Each structure stands twice: as structure tokens, then as C-alpha cells.
Amino acid sequence: MAVKIRLKRTGTRNASCFRVVVMDKRMARDGRAIEEIGFYNPRAKEERVDLARVDYWVGCGAEVSETCAQIIDRIRKGVVLKDIVKPVKPSKKQQEKMRQEAEAKAAAEAEAKAAAEAAAAEAAAPAEA
User: Fold this and answer.
1) Could you tell me if 49 and 20 are in contact, meaning their C-beta atoms sit under 8 angstroms apart?
2) Residue 50 carries which DSSP code?
């Protein structure tokens, strides 16, 4: 029997919650599970898995789905899902605005540097004469 550790969807429409289950990989996603070993709630940012049972089933030859593997790795490392903060990606308009500001700042710095060099050259010229 081919066994897999994967997620089983529960909860209501637009409020999904998942159970981490061990089931035959040929069964339907929400079908009968061999064993429930944890849960994952993305809305409340909670996750709990019995790692001893995961190790047992992996030792028996069970495959682990990608998402379950990520959840298990986070739990093994002790990372709490609530503490993970994703960086905010600026919109294309904001990216363009930041690029223009950076170019303007670089041009202003180049002008200031050129003016400083010119002033230094002027100051040095009368001293030589």
C-alpha cells in the first residue's frame, strides 16, 4: 500500500482549515484517512503535528507532500507561523518612482562632487600662481 502524509481540507467555504493525515495516496483528498497526526490553520496561523508519528510513518515508507514537509520543518526548527513576516513588495508604480528618485539622487551627488572638484581646482590654481 502506498502511503502519503498530506493535508485534508476541513472547515467551511472561505474559512478553510487542514488536517495533517496519513492516507493511501490513491484516496480522494478528503477521503478516509489511516491516521490524523496534526492540523494546520492558515487563518489563525496555527499548526501542530505529532513529530513522533511523522517519524514512525516516514520510517514505514510514507511519502511527505511538499506543503506538509514545509510545516514539519517549521515545527522541527521551532518557528512559529505567526512570527513569519513576509516582505511587502512595492507595486510597479512605486518601483518606478523609487528608481527615478535614486537616479535623481545619483545625479545630484555627481553634480555636487563635480562642483566640489571645481572649487578645489580653483582654490589650488591661485595658490600655484
Assistant:
1) yes
2) -
Instruction: Report which of 59, 2, 46 is spatially closest to residue 20, judged by C-alpha positions.
Output: 46
Grid cell 502519503 — which residue? 4
Q: Which CATH architecture has domain 3-83?
A: 2-Layer Sandwich (3.30)
How distant, in Å, are the alpha carbons of 36, 53, 84, 104 from that of 45?
A: 19, 22, 10, 42
Give per-residue pLDDT as tens, 98-121. 999 999 999 999 888 888 888 888
User: Quick one: CA dihedral 28, 32, 33, 36, positive or negative?
Assistant: positive
Q: Which residues contact 19 (CB under 8 A, 6 or more apart)?
A: 7, 8, 10, 33, 36, 38, 39, 40
pLDDT tens across 41-86, in order? 999 999 999 999 999 999 999 999 999 999 999 999 998 888 888 8
Q: Rounded CA gap, 76 and 87, in Å?
A: 23
Contact 7, 67 (CB under 8 A): yes
Q: Determine the pLDDT at residue 127.
A: 56
